[in-house]
Every structure is written in C-alpha cells, then in structure tokens.
Amino acid sequence: MKAVTVHAAGDLRIDTVPDPVPGPGEALVRLEWGGICGSDIAYWRSGISGTAVLTEPLILGHEVAGTVVAFGDGGSSIPVGTPVTIHPASIAEGSTLAPELAGRDNLHSKVRYFGSAAFTPHTQGGFSTLRVVRVDQLRALPAGVSTRTASVAEPLGVALHAITRAGSLAGKRVLVNGAGPIGALVVAAAVSAGAATVYASDVAASSLEIAGAMGAHVLINRAQGEALPEDVDVAFEASGVPATVGDVLGATARGGIVVQVGNLPTGNVSVGLGALVSREIDYRGTYRFAGEFDRAIELLAGGLNVEPLLTHEFDLDDALAAFETAADRSTGSSKVLLRLSAETGESSGAGTDSAASTASSKSSEEAL
C-alpha cells in the first residue's frame, strides 16, 4: 500500500509499505479521506510538533475516515463495508489519571495518538491506503454523513472540547481570535451552543470569509486595523500567536473567560498578561478532546455544514503539493483533504475540484 511518510524535516515521501493484516480484536480499514492538520505540517517542516521530536520515519495523519474491509479473529458488531471514522487516541500502558480527573481521558499521563512522534517507536498515522485499528476505535457513520465529511470529526471534536472548557455560551458574546480550520470550527461550535454574537478575528480575508460561512456574526480584519470588540463574555484564542494573547485578554470582560485553543510555541515566549490580573480573567487551557469526538459525529449527522471549511482536495500521490497548499495561507486554504484511496465512492462539487487542481499546479511549480 501507499503511505505519506515524513523521514526528516523537509523530507516527505510517498512510500510503498506492506499491507497490514488485522489481528484479534482489530479491523482493517480502507482509508478514503484525510485532513491535513497543523501538527502534520510541523513534522514535515521541522521534524518537531510541540514537544514530540521525529527520530524515525512516521506515517502522518490523524483526521481520517474510510470503510471497514476485514476483521481479525473475534469480528465485530459492525459489518464489513461499514463507513467509519477512527478515534485516533489510545491510552498507553502504564498511564495514570488522578481520580479527580475521571472522565477526562485526554489528560492521561501517556496517550498514543495517530501520526505522533511522542513515543518511540512512533505511533503511525492514517495517511495510507489501509490501516489496522482496534475495533473500539471505530465509529460507524450515521446515515447522511459521508467519509469525506467525517474526516473533519477529529478537529470538530477539538473545537467542541474548547467549548466545553468555557462552560455555557448560551446568550453570550463570544470572540474567536484566529480563523484557521480550528478557529472556524470553534465558530460553528459556539453558534451551535447558542452564543448570541460570535466575533471572528484574523489577518487573512479568506479565513474570515470561511468563518462567516461557518456562522460568525461579525468579522474583524486585524490586517486592516479593525479593532477587537470590547468586553466579550468568552474569548477563544485560536491563532497560537503569543503577541495576540494580550489583546484577547484586553477584549474580555472583567471576570470573563479566555480559552487558549491555539498551540503556543514551546519554550519561553513574550505574552502580555496584565489584563489577566486586573480584569480577574479565568485563563483556561484545552487539549484535544474527551467525549466530544462522538458528539462531533452527532452534530455532523444533525446537519452541521462543514463544506465552507473544505477548500482543497489532492490525491495521495500529490501529498507534497497538498502540504505546501495547507501551509501557505496565500492559497486561501483552510482544511486541505487527501484522497487516500481511489474508491472514495463520493463526488465533490466542481468548484472544490477546480480549486484543488489550480492549487496543485501552483504548488508543483513551487515544490521544494
């Protein structure tokens, strides 16, 4: 089978590797769609994502969906041929979780995750034609949810967990700073949670346009000098840019809540935190998701429209062009998808195919 593998910083390859065989309690999934995440781009560009350092070849990808094609011994209540998405996390042997954190499985001390170099050997990801997974990682897709749409379940779960960390948003004024893929999904999640007004802020007009299509009521273009709103009840900092944190705190009402969604750089950074104290703001972190992965699938089945987010599509063989497009905001990209096998069984709109074709040509000319 084929697999999108990073061998070192700047060294992304389409490798041919043996087809996997499912063992007891495992399923073999033909993967059809995969979404490129910022962590995938980080491994490709630098060999590092957060605190995880690449030390061996790694198949990337943790936002994937496909169809079950076989089971190992023991089978499953899910029949062969079922469209699925895959929960990418596994609690590792020897992991611990304090009793007071019961239910917050994302905070286990040791968690393996698809496409992660946090452990050695690394945990291989899902940007491949086939993947063996534990049966309990499968999530059968409800009627009306395609594998293409379901590839967004993982980042939507991240957005929903950020909303959970903020508490009730019903009737509140909400700011989402940073309208990349996760920020745009936070916008959609906030609207779904009943926020009265959702402000989206970014420096890219194309990202703001997508945030608007995902439900943002007010768009703020910081590159054009537009100011953040005053005294929002809850703010989500989704850009991961340290210089913006002080501004977000300053836009938050006294006694309000700021949730840090975007990953800040590892190591020491300069952040303006004065308003954190003077406004007595509750500054909260958020990490991956707990039960929100399943909630994401429910929302997709309920009609949450993520199409505005899905800006580009590439075949697996064109993975380098896909990564270049996803990493370059000037392309207008948001969530870039890989077709992981020829048998997707789905067709997308002509506009999306056209955008992908144009971007592929441009990126190929600029290939490293």
UniProtKB/TrEMBL annotation:
Record bears the keyword Iron-sulfur: no
Name listed for the protein in its UniProt record: L-idonate 5-dehydrogenase
Annotated source species: Mycetocola lacteus
Domain annotation Alcohol dehydrogenase-like C-terminal: ranges: 181-301
Record domain Alcohol dehydrogenase-like N-terminal: where: 23-142
Family to which this protein belongs: Belongs to the zinc-containing alcohol dehydrogenase family.
Entry keyword set: Metal-binding, Oxidoreductase, Zinc
Cofactor(s) the protein requires to work: Zn(2+)
InterPro entries: ADH-like_C, ADH-like_N, GroES-like_sf, NAD(P)-bd_dom_sf
Low complexity bias (residue ranges): 344-362
GO molecular function: metal ion binding; oxidoreductase activity
Source taxonomy: Bacteria, Bacillati, Actinomycetota, Actinomycetes, Micrococcales
Region (Disordered): 344-368
